[in-house]
């Protein structure tokens, strides 16, 4: 069974989310949460929909429902994890002083 590729809008949403996680330096807890929740991704997506009215009161999230639907897809979780890891690696490389070879 092959998974349907992520749409360009979905990929852009995951990239924005990963960038924000890296900006806040929350990559470790985010990756641990994603890896732990992977077996329960469908339940997590449904829980996000259940709590949507509360989340919308507290946060301005235009793409909340789309993110809830993406969370249910394992390939989206893998892509998000990879984007967070890549962003954290890039930040670390940028913060290292350049050493002459």
Describe the structure.
- This protein has helices at residues 8-23, 27-37, 41-50, 52-58, 64-71, 74-95.
- It is an all-alpha fold.
- The N and C termini lie far apart (47 Å).
Shape: globular
Quote the distance from N terminus to C terminus: 47 Å
Overall mean pLDDT score? 86
Element string (H = helix, E = strand): HHHHHH
Q: Helix tally? A: 6
Q: Which ranges are low-confidence, i.e. pLDDT below 50, for 5 or more consecutive residues?
A: none
- Report the portion of residues in β strands: under 5%
Instruction: Please give the share of residues in helix.
Output: over 70%
Indicate the radius of gyration in whole angstroms.
15 Å
Major beta sheet, specifics? none
Number of strands: 0
- Based on secondary structure, the structural category is mainly alpha
Quick summary:
The chain contains six helices and no strands. With 101 residues, the protein is mostly helical. The longest helix is centred in the last third of the chain and has 22 residues, at 74-95.
């Amino acid at each position: 069974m092959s998974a349907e590729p992520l749409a360009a809008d979905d990929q852009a949403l995951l990239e924005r989310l990963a960038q924000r996680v890296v900006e806040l330096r929350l990559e470790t807890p985010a990756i641990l949460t994603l890896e732990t929740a992977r077996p329960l991704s469908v339940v997590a997506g449904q829980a996000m929909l259940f709590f949507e009215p509360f989340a919308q009161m507290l946060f301005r999230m235009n793409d909340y429902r789309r993110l809830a639907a993406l969370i249910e897809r394992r390939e989206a979780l893998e892509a998000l994890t990879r984007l967070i890891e890549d962003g954290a690696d890039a930040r670390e490389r940028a913060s290292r002083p350049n050493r002459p070879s």
